[in-house]
Structure formats: C-alpha cells, structure tokens
C-alpha cells in the first residue's frame, strides 16, 4: 500500500523567478559558511528570470522514500541556530522587523537546507504585506524540502566532514518532509485566498505534531538543542486561527488560539511556549474579540497577555485601539507611547506616531499632535510623514489654516514616489479643499476610479 501524502497546494505564480539551478547554487554556497553573520537570500541576489517554474516542478519525491528523516548535526550548531530563532521571534514580538530579518538571515546561513528559517522569513514578509517576497521564500523553502529528501545521503554527513565540527558532539534531529510541505502549501493557499485548502493542509500537519510518535521523539530530546522542536502545535494552531480570521470566522479563530494555550499548559511532552508567544496568543484572542465588537473583553485579553510579556508591541497597539474605540483616549495614549518606546522599525514607528497624534487630537491637545507630526516630518521627511495628512485631521490641528495644509499636501504629492494608493488619498484630501475638475479627473483616472471615503 502506497503512502498517502499530505495535501500540497498547487499554484503557478508569476512571482516565481528563480530557476532550480539558481536555488541549488545558493544552498551549496551556504554550506560550510556557517560563521557568516548574515546571508543575502535569492530575494536580493536574483535578477528577473524568464524561466518561471510551476510549484510542482519542485516536488520530485517518490512514494518509496521515508517521510521522516534523521540527520546528525553538531549540538553547538543547533544551539546557535535556536538562539538566533529565539532572538528573531523576540524582535517580531516587538514589531522590530528589520532587526528580526537580520536574525533570521543569520539562522538560514547556519543551516541553509532546513526549511523553518524560510517559513518564518516568509511569514515575516506576509505580515508586512510584501507578498512577492513572501511567495519567493515559500518557494525557496519548498525546494529545500525536496532537495533534502532527494539528496539525503549528501546532507546527512556533511557537517561531520568539516574540520570545525569534528570534535563536537553530534545528535539526532528529525525532519518530517510532509509536515513542512503542508506548512508551505498552506501558506501558499492562504495568500491565494484558498482558505479551505489552507485549513486542510494545516490540519494534516497537526495530525503529525500531536501524534504519539512525534511526542516520544520530543520527550527523548533536549528541546534546547534539536530542530524537530519547530514541528510544533503552536505554529499550526496560530495559523489556523489566522486562516479563520481571514474568513471572518472570529469565533473559530479564537477557539484555535485557546487550543494552543490549552495544549501548552496541559501537555507535558510538547515544547513549552516562550512568554512572548503566550502574550501573542492572548493578543490574538483579543484581536478576535475586538473584531466581534467586544472591545472591553478584548482589553481583558490584552491585559492577560501583557502580564506574560511587557514588551509585546502589537499587543499595546491593539489595546490602544480598543481604548480609543471606547473613548478612553488617555489610556490609548499611554499604550501608543509604549509602542513608540519599544519600536526600532521605521515603518511601524510612523504608524504608531500617526495613531498617537490622532489620540492627542481627540483630547484636544492640538499642540502635542502638531509636535508629533513636525518631529516625524523633520526626522523622516514628508514622504514618510504623509500618512498624517490623510489619517489625522491636521487641518483642524492647524486651526483651519488651509494654506499651510495645502503646502504640506503639495510637498507630499510631489514626493510620494510609486505609492499610488497614498497619492490617490492625498489628491482626495486636496480635492476636498479645492474641488477643481482637474483634480477630480486625476482621481477618477486611477485604476479603481472612484472618489472613495478617507478612512
């Protein structure tokens, strides 16, 4: 009887530009260079290539191959890898995406044929809306799975042959091919809005994670030093919640986050979650409740999350939004201030500052709101500061000084670059002041073409 493989999402994407040879060359270039502090992935290296591949060109696995592989790796290497992953996840919790990317790049350079780094890097870019880079990292991760399976004999002893590791202690690390292909396939499906297929793929991966065989392997391992710790219930439950959120099934979304918490607290053989991961789950539960128009209950969950980890930037942002909706602007300001204190990522920082200025505007502190805008303008320039002009009532803050508002609007329009959506919103703002036919024609000539509400 042949093995039943997990469902893999089939997709042909114009975003897949790396040839098989380019990907293999990159992997080969990384092996033996584990001391590198960073790695430039094919996202930055690769020029546009007309040899675009169907996803299934990467699946060259036959049914008679073992689905779970065991590879011996130097303990010191996996400890370094796990430490980098920890630092990556910590910076993600703080919304410091640029620092997080540095850590995940370093982790990938340590063990470039292991798929987890590519999965998390793809997730990072998905969370900031860079779907092109997201899909390319997924493709890259899929290839590492199939390449590892097809060339297992090459990889299983590769570090034993390196001089720097010959005197090190080696230990077993297990690698479930189907689990990882399910995760990558589910992520493909989520981006393509194939939610049911996404959910099915995650459910298949979950069966393996919760299997007795996997739990026995974990129970017999030092979880601080093995890689199969990343074949984890937390990842599956969290992404199942996200998938249901994408379908606006907020009650089911919350159920999966709660399942992750229950599994963490009630199952002894599975890896325990870090404090910031627990905070993240409570944050997600709060987000589901907020989406169901229950801001007070959402705040209770955010409070619970902050008791586990007091530097979770997204949690404070969401709690501030809930306070803002309830009209508790002073409480919102305190949380937005916490966000700005924690943040080192420019794009996220500007979002925090915009929200902070809007909260000060809501309590009538126009002077402070204006100061936040001017500080941002002077530090980052008008291109970065342009969201203030469409998200905050700067015209009221400037006491209806329309000339001043127009000067900043025109400067922003001239410097907006290729951000078409921001250009459209700036033009709409300007139209509300001038209402000229020329401006209206410019607005309706955009692809979507309609004068839309400014949110």
UniProtKB/TrEMBL annotation:
Transmembrane segments: none
Record keyword Repeat present: yes
Protein's organism: Naegleria gruberi
Lineage: Eukaryota, Discoba, Heterolobosea, Tetramitia, Eutetramitia
SUPFAM superfamilies named among the record's database cross-references: TPR-like
PANTHER family in the cross-refs: TETRATRICOPEPTIDE REPEAT PROTEIN 6 (PTHR44858), UDP-N-ACETYLGLUCOSAMINE--PEPTIDE N-ACETYLGLUCOSAMINYLTRANSFERASE SPINDLY-RELATED (PTHR44858:SF1)
Name recorded for this polypeptide: Predicted protein
Keyword terms, alphabetized: Repeat, TPR repeat
Gene3D superfamilies: Tetratricopeptide repeat domain
Ribonucleoprotein keyword on record: no
């Amino acid at each position: 009887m042949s093995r039943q493989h997990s469902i893999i999402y089939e997709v042909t994407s114009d975003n897949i530009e790396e040839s098989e040879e380019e990907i293999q060359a990159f992997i080969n270039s990384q092996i033996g260079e584990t001391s590198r502090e960073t790695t430039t992935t094919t996202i930055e290296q690769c020029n546009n290539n007309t040899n675009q591949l169907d996803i299934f060109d990467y699946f060259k696995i036959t049914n008679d191959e073992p689905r779970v592989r065991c590879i011996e790796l130097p303990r010191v290497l996996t400890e370094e890898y796990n430490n980098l992953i920890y630092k990556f996840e910590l910076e993600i919790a703080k919304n410091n995406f640029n620092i997080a990317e540095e850590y995940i790049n370093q982790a990938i350079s340590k063990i470039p044929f292991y798929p987890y780094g590519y999965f998390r890097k793809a997730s990072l870019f998905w969370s900031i809306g860079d779907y092109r880079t997201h899909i390319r990292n997924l493709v890259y991760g899929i290839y590492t799975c199939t390449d590892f399976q097809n060339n297992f004999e090459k990889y299983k002893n590769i570090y034993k042959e390196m001089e720097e590791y010959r005197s090190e202690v080696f230990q077993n690390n297990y690698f479930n091919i189907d689990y990882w292909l399910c995760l990558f396939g589910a992520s493909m499906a989520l981006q393509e809005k194939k939610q049911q297929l996404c959910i099915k793929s995650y459910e298949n991966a979950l069966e393996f994670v919760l299997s007795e065989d996997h739990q026995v392997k974990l129970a017999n391992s030092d979880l601080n030093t093995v890689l199969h710790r990343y074949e984890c219930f937390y990842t599956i439950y969290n992404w199942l919640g996200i998938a249901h959120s994408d379908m606006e099934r907020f009650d089911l979304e919350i159920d999966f986050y709660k399942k992750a918490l229950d599994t963490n607290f009630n199952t002894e053989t599975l890896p325990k979650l870090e404090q910031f991961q627990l905070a993240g789950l409570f944050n997600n539960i709060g987000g589901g409740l907020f989406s169901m128009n229950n801001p007070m209950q959402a705040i209770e969950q955010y409070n619970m999350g902050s008791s586990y980890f007091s530097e979770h930037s997204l949690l404070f942002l969401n709690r501030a939004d809930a306070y803002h909706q309830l009209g508790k602007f002073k409480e919102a300001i305190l949380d937005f201030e916490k966000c700005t204190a924690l943040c080192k990522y420019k794009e996220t920082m500007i979002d925090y500052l915009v929200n902070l200025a809007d909260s000060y505007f809501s309590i009538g502190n126009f002077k402070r709101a204006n100061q936040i805008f001017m500080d941002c303008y002077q530090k980052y320039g008008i291109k970065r500061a342009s969201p203030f002009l469409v998200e905050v009532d700067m015209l009221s803050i400037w006491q209806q000084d329309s000339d001043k508002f127009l000067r900043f609007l025109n400067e922003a329009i001239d410097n907006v670059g290729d951000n078409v959506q921001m250009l459209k919103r700036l033009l709409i703002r300007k139209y509300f002041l001038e209402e000229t036919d020329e401006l209206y024609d410019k607005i309706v000539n955009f692809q979507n073409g309609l004068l839309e509400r400014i949110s």
